[in-house]
Amino acid sequence: MRYSRQNKILELIGKYEIETQDKLASLLREEGFEVTQATISRDIKELQLIKVLTPSGKYKYAVSKRSDAPITDRFMKIFRETVISTTSVNNLILIKTLSGCGSAAAEAVDNIGVPYIVGTIAGDNTMLVVVDSEEHVQELLTTFNNMISAKKQEA
User: What residues does the Arginine repressor C-terminal domain cover (predicted)?
Assistant: First the structure.
């Protein structure tokens, strides 16, 4: 549930100019998530959201563009905890995730700096990774599967 909620937060801040935790909580409730201010605050901290100035002169929540270790670790954990399986065809990799976690897994891949990826497209429980060429697909599959198997080693 936490990953689905955090995924929805990322989606909402990408879609709306959200200035306050109250506004974010309200939008999450409209989407069916029962949240408290403490939950919102914890999610903002875990996602390392920042406030940025908008063209209209207001501040809104946004994903930090800094590439520091804690956020990379966070995205790695999201990937490990949400991905079920990987498969490929030609220069495409299809990744199956837990329900509601496709976007979170795609956001993780987009932010951890995996090479050779042209882009990702996410659904509710799947993610499509477009690779620059077929020759890099196996290397990426190995990388993804190693990330997933790290979950098993932690348990």
Answer: 79-145
Position 18: which residue type? I
d(C-alpha 139, C-alpha 88), whole Å: 12
Which pTM was predicted? Answer: 0.58
Residue 66 CB contacts under 8 Å (≥ 6 apart), including other chains: 48
Q: Is-contact 104 3, C-beta < 8 A?
A: yes
| CATH architecture, domain defined by 71-150 | 2-Layer Sandwich (3.30)
Does the pLDDT of residue 152 top 60, yes or no? no
Could you tell me the fold of the domain covering 1-63?
Arc Repressor Mutant, subunit A (1.10.10)
Q: How many angstroms separate the most distant Cα atoms in the chain? A: 48
Q: Is the pLDDT of residue 67 over 80?
A: no
Q: For residue 42, give the amino acid letter.
A: R
Q: Is 120 helix (H, G, I), strand (E, B) or coil?
A: strand
Q: What is the mean pLDDT of residues 64-77?
A: 66
